[in-house]
Amino acid sequence: MNDMSSSPRRADGSAGDADYGRIGQGYASYRQPEPAIAALIEAALGPARRVLNVGAGAGSYEPRGRDMIAVEPSASMRAQRPADIVAAIDATAEALPFPDGYFDASMATFTVHQWQHLDAGLREMRRVTRGPVVILSCDPDLVQAFWLNHYAPEVLATEARRYPSLGHIGTVLGGDVEIVAVPIPLACRDGFNEAYYGRPELFLDPGARSACSAWSFVGETQNAASIEKLRQDLDCGAWDDCYGFLRNQPNFDGSLRLVIARP
């Protein structure tokens, strides 16, 4: 379970362990919402009209056509939100500035692993939400099963340590909890690590790696060695010998999960 109680907010306001003032400048270019994932989130939110997005970042997966309010502590991430969605409020999950039961539903995508006080943030979401709380995260027990672990084990070990137990998330939120596996399409537009399961060449792009925060916790020398090993295996065909079937696999069942807690 994450507990980064000693981590202060950074210069750009980042409240978690990742410094988005440093690594988040091109985040929105690589982390576009994937329609298939967005559809699952929309369905989980149900008929809710007033919806809160916590740790909203650049606005991926915020449904259109609903009364949205977004919370995001990082100034660099708030600045990348597109003009057609609401501006985000500078606040953290652990201290949401809203009254009890103010929202029909709330959501948080790819963010709970970065909160300073996970349980406090989840309880705040439950406090301000009278309907479902929807969390998109990864199962830490499955993260290192991905082929990238062969090339960048430190990166995936970092991811596995950072992601909280899905069962724990459900326990803290309470109510009727459902955990749904989220298939990842081959041409996934959202550039998290597993999104490139069948497009390994994209890991050679420094911007793509920067948009996945786990790479920022590993030293540059280690990351360079990992990428060089992958580059060599792509050049000689070793990667395709082992994993080439993934290039034509329509979906990948990895660690991505949706936690839906209904009161």
Automatic annotation (TrEMBL):
Domain Methyltransferase type: 54-130
Keywords noted in UniProt: Methyltransferase, Transferase
SUPFAM superfamilies in the cross-refs: S-adenosyl-L-methionine-dependent methyltransferases (SSF53335)
Domain of life: Bacteria
InterPro entries assigned: Methyltransf_11 (IPR013216), SAM-dependent_MTases_sf (IPR029063)
Entry keyword Phosphoprotein: no
Pfam family, one: Methyltransf_11
Protein's UniProt name: Methyltransferase domain-containing protein
Organism: Bosea robiniae
